[in-house]
Amino acid sequence: ALNYTFSIIKPDAFNTGKAGKIIAHLESQGFTLKAARVVHMSKKQAEEFYAVHRGRPFFGELVDFMSSAPCMPFVLVKDNAVHALRDAIGATDPAEAAAGTVRKLYAESKGKNAIHASDSDENAVRESRFFFAEADTI
Ligand code: CMP
């Protein structure tokens, strides 16, 4: 499996000053930062990033939210990184997320859920390339 994955501190968490706490939490679980930046996505960029969800009932809300304010895309390194980060962030809905997960600790709702994590190695590569040059992630 890939040794890195892609994540975003979403606007709800980034703009309430939680980025540092979330990154420290992930570092304490053995993830290391490989690349990071701060981006205020345009609506068009958010639509392209989330193209896989086009047609879902929450697509418009998701795109509006992700383009509403700055967020923080980053790349994390760990063995079996995609699976490890999915475990660390918890369920989409913070009400259903396990104790100690990022979403249980920091998310507000199913839509404003603090953090994104790639769901497959293939998407981790695609999503990393969406925000970073290849040289920044190897
Ligand atoms: P994530 O899994 O990172 O990527 C898709 C996002 O759509 C998901 O996080 C949620 O933040 C968002 N979303 C908003 N509403 C819903 C919903 N009803 N079901 C699933 N995802 C939703």
CATH architectural group: 2-Layer Sandwich
Q: Number of folding domains?
A: 1
CATH class: Alpha Beta
Q: What share of residues are in beta strands?
A: 5-15%
Q: Count the E strands.
A: 4
Question: What is the H/E string?
Answer: EHHEHHEHHEH
- The helical percent reads 25-40%
Question: What would CATH call the homologous superfamily?
Answer: Nucleoside diphosphate kinase-like domain
What ligands are attached or bound here?
adenosine-3',5'-cyclic-monophosphate
Shape: globular
**Span between N and C termini?**
15 Å
What is the C-alpha radius of gyration, as a whole number of Å? Answer: 14 Å
EC number: 2.7.4.6
Binding site for ATP: 10, 58, 86, 92, 103, 113
Family: Belongs to the NDK family.
Protein name: Nucleoside-diphosphate kinase
Describe this structure in words.
With 138 residues, the protein is of the alpha+beta class. It has a single domain, classed as Nucleoside diphosphate kinase-like domain (Alpha-Beta Plaits, 2-Layer Sandwich), CATH 3.30.70.141. The protein contains 7 helices and 4 strands. The protein has a 4-stranded antiparallel beta sheet with strand order 2-3-1-4. The longest helix has 11 residues, at 121-131. The model has no long low-confidence stretch (mean pLDDT 97). The structure holds adenosine-3',5'-cyclic-monophosphate.
